[in-house]
Specification:
The protein is α/β, with parallel strands linked by helices and 408 residues long. It is built from 16 helices and 13 strands. Strands 8-9-7-10-6-11-12-13 form an eight-stranded mixed β-sheet, with helices on both faces. The protein has a five-stranded parallel β-sheet with strand order 2-1-3-4-5, sandwiched between helices. α4 links the parallel β4 and β5. α2 runs parallel beside α3. The longest helix is centred in the middle third of the chain and has 16 residues.
Length: 408
């Protein structure tokens, strides 16, 4: 089954823009989704839309053009780059190809030359793949501390890696008080501050060589650690985090992010880029109130409801407040329940080893394994956890209803 080929034009000359548009219209299955004469804005358009093809004109500042071409080629490997230039000597053509261009068209650009490019490549570019080649970002969030975000992020990353038989990235975005390296008892080679200082060098190879690797059984997790010093957190910007996460997503099948509890620009970047947000809560009044406020904010931010997955940690059956009460109050279905395993969790943290490495941890390991399968689509909802057996109704629902207004 074929799809339309989306292209972006980064071109200063209006006549050349018109020629490319004309060729696209004649091709039938090629759509121009954006045009600009700015290299910097053009790169941003590519980052946002990830088209199948991009046209770039080779400017007097050749080095700047080649830098943009190389960035597109590095970060968006599925985008084919076509460069056009007045100079068509072998040295210039080779420089463009080495930067990542697949085609070089001499100027002035002719309709036939653009049509030839479409005919040569659109057949391959328009074929639907079995799935997105880029990875998925799963951000674990709660605006209350002490709910087990880091435990969930760490063990989920390990289970996903074991499931897909590939390395998974684990990012500590609690930039002032991160705990992932403590939980796994590892010493990072570099932290996110070091990566930020070398943001111009960031690509897949650089990140893989800079991250701390943790292995357990069939699991391999590459950790991007939080800063060594609290004050260093201010050196990291939301824009740098955006770049790093984009490269990680293009490199790893899954990127798991452990966040801070605040809604700063860095956390919002991780939430915006996430394919799924695991909103961690517990079955008690303060946590339900907190979750309601978070869901309200997510709604104002325009997040798709399916993107947000409500996860109840330290769940104990037969509590006074039922799952039905929580779902009714939040107008949100509970996606997953993690049972209360305080002793196993604390032993795991204190020893700096995964929970799966402990005796009597089969139940909690299976819980995380089933969560990984559900998030990855290996199994469908309701095929993992048993449906909740609701108790006879008490006055807990009326208590919740009196305290909270439902999210609409």
């Amino acid at each position: 089954m074929s799809r339309a080929v989306n292209i972006i034009i980064i071109e200063q000359d209006p006549d050349t823009q018109a020629v490319i548009r004309q060729a696209a219209e004649a091709a039938g299955n090629v759509i121009v989704i954006a045009e600009t004469d700015s290299l910097i804005y053009g790169y941003e358009l590519v980052r946002q839309n990830q088209p199948q093809m991009v046209f770039v004109d080779l400017r007097e500042d050749t080095a700047k053009t080649l830098e943009i071409v190389e960035k597109i080629s590095t970060y968006f490997k599925d985008t084919m780059i076509v460069v056009s230039g007045k100079i068509i000597d072998l040295e210039t053509t080779m420089a463009c190809m080495q930067a990542g261009a697949r085609e070089f068209i001499p100027r002035p650009v002719q309709l036939e030359a653009v049509t030839d490019v479409f005919n040569k490549h659109s057949g391959v570019l328009s074929v639907d793949t079995d799935g997105d080649k880029t990875g998925r970002i799963i951000t674990v969030f709660s605006n209350k501390g002490g709910l087990g975000k880091t435990t969930i992020a760490t063990n989920l990353a390990l289970e996903l890696s074991e499931m897909v038989k590939q390395p998974v990235a684990l990012v500590d975005l609690n930039l002032q008080l991160g705990d992932i390296t403590t939980f796994l008892d590892i010493t990072p080679k570099q932290t996110i501050v070091d990566i930020a200082k070398n943001i111009g060098r960031v690509d897949a190879a650089y990140l893989e060589s800079s991250l701390a690797e943790f292995k357990y059984g069939d699991s391999r997790v590459f950790v991007l650690a939080d800063p060594l010093h609290v004050e260093d957190a201010e050196e990291v910007t939301a824009e740098q985090i955006n770049t790093v996460l984009t490269v990680l997503k293009a490199t790893f099948p899954y990127v798991i992010i452990d966040t801070t509890t605040s809604f700063d620009s860095k956390t919002l970047t991780a939430l915006d880029l996430a394919d799924n947000i695991l909103l961690v809560s517990m079955v008690n009044l303060p946590c339900v109130r907190s979750s309601q406020r978070v869901l309200s904010l997510f709604n104002r931010l325009g997040y798709d409801d399916q993107k947000i997955k409500l996860v109840l940690n330290r769940y104990i059956p037969d509590e006074e407040i039922t799952i039905e009460d929580v779902e009714d109050t939040l107008s949100k279905e509970v996606y997953w329940k993690i049972p209360n395993n305080y002793q196993i969790v604390m032993t795991s943290i204190n020893r700096g080893i995964p929970m799966a490495a402990l005796e009597n941890s089969q139940s909690i390991k299976k819980n995380f394994s089933d969560l990984a399968k559900l998030l990855s689509g290996v199994v469908k909802p309701k095929e993992t956890q048993e449906p909740v057996q609701l108790k006879e109704k008490t006055d807990s629902k009326s208590l919740l209803s009196s305290l909270f207004q439902k999210n609409k």
